[in-house]
């Protein structure tokens, strides 16, 4: 906890759909939340943050403690990182500026080994906790977020000054308590890599096919061919996880299909990234799992084919200035 | 040969890029060629047929013996079928009306077992010859065809009144002679199924990916990921062919990649079918090879994934009136 405040102070690095939603929920629960923004700074500073939630109703946060530069933010005990994993290598100086001594950085991203990337650019004194968000949220306009369903964040210790299991568990439990106070379910994960593989069983098929086929979950589930492809991709990821030593619960793919079937139509972030010409999170969600599974002796042929098709699309999707 | 004419009479069923190109070449060589058209009948009857060829220059055929109904056409000794394989089941009455006794129907389509479909709807007296076109042509406007490269048609006997090998060979040789007179290379195929599998090694990757990724051959070859995917798909088709008893020449995939590398940028028919909202030829090029290979014990995982993605796209691509 920082010395400047008795309330835990939370910094939101990247106020998109994920950062905005959880930051707003924490602020409403009474935490001292500071939001770092880029292009949407002026709008949010003026209008506040709005979450239109199918679960909680219309939630408005105003005023918002908004910043357009990390240098202006106070030191934070908790840092929630909701930026795209494609930018992780550049986060070092930003997070280092905002982190209180012994701060905990909670990385709210999909994909494999995203924490390893961040570890390389952060001081040793900072804890890194991995967070997996089971939530359907989208940014619909500057400062406006639609929350369609769910909300839980699974948390697991990655690395940092906590050297023994008990002190690691204390950090993760504190992290879970932070969310629970705000009404957000936050299960503690026994194994972060296992949990990341488990989440990939959903992200690999749905994120990629939503972008490739320009469709939401309902359409992908309703068509017999795309549904069969979703299932085949899931089965490959389950086998890839097993090859890497992470046996998943029996019937896990069926479970995810049933959960998705019951969801409102949802377009995962990769769909929106493609439409809005942002880089796709292909390394974290595809390339690293493919490399890990192949090193463990299992190639995932359909996953690789999907990755290759998406990599082709991603290269052609950058604004001319990036070429 | 029909009794009405000493020149062989050729009927073109479906005057798109393939039918128009070969029909025009045969007409220029002196054959008595009759073209069946649908939507482009009036334009072609008025303006003739134009082939802008990178090989032969600008070729104009005018007047064209054009028909909008098979009932008006004279009986033909040779029928060249250049329609989409998706419409084969409906070709019976049309071809039966135009076929002279003992006519030979040359089916100029891609994919597997397209002749089997046609056999079911044609009288026993008619020969069916399969034809594989190695040609880059596209219809660019009504009655206007761009010919970018190549032109050969490989021919092989499928079924009909020729009961022994010698009489089958006589039909196929006559078919080859027809093309050769018009300056078109026409190798005789020892095995039609083998040749159809061999051609699939090109069509499966390039047709499907050009539609899925909305790109021509040059772009697909230049990108390292799509090139690797092309190659992986080719390898699967080669293995599928082998499982079905059709060993292909060693190094065949490399050969095709090199040939395509040397081609002008080309967008295969499936690309154009998608853009123009026509049904994609998925049964002939994907579903039937997948079924045949699976029955022989080999599933083609990437080919199946591509097929499933294309089937999803195809269903969403039909005009509302077809739904």
Defining traits:
NAD(P)-bd_dom_sf (chains A, B); 2-dehydropantoate 2-reductase (chains A, B); 2-dehydropantoate 2-reductase activity (chains A, B); transmembrane (chains A, B); homodimer; 9-stranded mixed beta sheet; KPR-Related (chains A, B); 2 domains; 21% strand; 44% helix; globular; disordered N terminus; alpha/beta; 323 residues; 9 strands; N-(1-d-carboxylethyl)-l-norvaline Dehydrogenase, domain 2; Rossmann fold; 12 helices
Brief sketch in words of this structure:
The structure is a homodimer of 323-residue chains. Chain A has 12 helices and 9 strands. The radius of gyration of chain A is 19 Å and the shape is globular.
CATH top level of the largest domain in chain A is Alpha Beta
Low-pLDDT sequence parts of chain A: 1-5
CATH architecture of the largest domain in chain A: 3-Layer(aba) Sandwich
Question: How many domains in all of chain A?
Answer: 2
Distance between the termini of chain A: 44 Å
Quaternary structure type? homodimer
Largest interface: A-B, 26 and 26 residues
Number-wise, the strands of chain A total 9
By DSSP (H or I, 4+ residues per run), the number of helices of chain A equals: 12
Strands of the biggest beta sheet of chain A: in what spatial order? 4-3-9-8-7-6-1-2-5
Shape of chain A: globular
Mean pLDDT of chain A: 94
Question: Helix coverage percent of residues of chain A?
Answer: 40-55%
Write down the CATH topology of the largest domain in chain A. Answer: Rossmann fold
Strand content of chain A: 15-25%
Order of helices and strands of chain A: EHEHEEEEHEHEEHHHHHHHH
CATH superfamily of the largest domain in chain A: NAD(P)-binding Rossmann-like Domain
The major pleated sheet of chain A works out as: 9 strands, mixed
- What structural class do the secondary elements of chain A suggest? alpha/beta
- Cα gyration radius of chain A (Å): 19 Å
GO cellular component, one term (chains A, B): cytoplasm
InterPro entries (chains A, B): 6-PGluconate_DH-like_C_sf, 6PGD_dom2, ApbA, KPA_reductase, KPR-Related, KPR_N, NAD(P)-bd_dom_sf
Family (chains A, B): Belongs to the ketopantoate reductase family.
Pathway (chains A, B): Cofactor biosynthesis; (R)-pantothenate biosynthesis; (R)-pantoate from 3-methyl-2-oxobutanoate: step 2/2
């Amino acid at each position: 906890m920082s010395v400047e405040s008795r309330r835990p102070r939370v910094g939101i690095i990247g106020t998109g759909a994920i950062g905005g939603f959880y930051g707003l929920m924490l602020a409403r629960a009474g935490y001292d939340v500071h939001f770092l923004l880029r292009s949407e700074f002026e709008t949010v500073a003026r209008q506040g943050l709005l979450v239109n939630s199918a679960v909680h109703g219309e939630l408005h946060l105003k005023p918002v403690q908004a910043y357009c530069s990390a240098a202006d933010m106070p030191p934070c005990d908790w840092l929630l990182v909701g930026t795209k994993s494609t930018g992780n290598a550049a986060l070092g100086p930003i997070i280092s500026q905002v982190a209180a001594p012994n701060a905990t950085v909670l990385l709210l991203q999909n994909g494999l080994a995203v924490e390893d990337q961040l570890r390389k650019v952060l001081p040793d004194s900072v804890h890194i906790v991995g967070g997996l968000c089971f939530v359907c949220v989208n940014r619909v306009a500057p400062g406006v977020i639609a929350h369609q369903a769910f909300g839980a964040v699974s948390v697991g210790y990655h690395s940092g000054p906590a050297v023994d299991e008990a002190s690691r568990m204390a950090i993760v439990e504190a992290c879970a308590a932070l969310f629970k106070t705000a009404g957000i379910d936050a299960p503690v994960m026994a194994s972060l890599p296992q949990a990341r593989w488990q989440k990939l069983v959903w992200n690999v098929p749905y994120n990629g096919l939503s972008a490739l086929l320009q469709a939401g979950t309902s359409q992908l589930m309703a068509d017999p061919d795309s549904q069969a492809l979703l299932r085949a991709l899931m089965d490959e990821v389950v086998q890839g996880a097993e090859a890497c030593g992470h046996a998943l619960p029996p019937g896990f793919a069926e479970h995810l299909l049933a959960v998705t079937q019951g969801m409102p139509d949802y377009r995962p972030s990769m769909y929106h990234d493609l439409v809005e010409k942002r880089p796709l999170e292909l390394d974290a969600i595809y390339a690293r799992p493919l490399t890990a599974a192949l090193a463990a002796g299992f190639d995932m042929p359909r996953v690789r084919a999907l990755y290759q098709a998406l990599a082709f699309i991603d290269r052609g999707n950058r604004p001319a200035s990036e070429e």
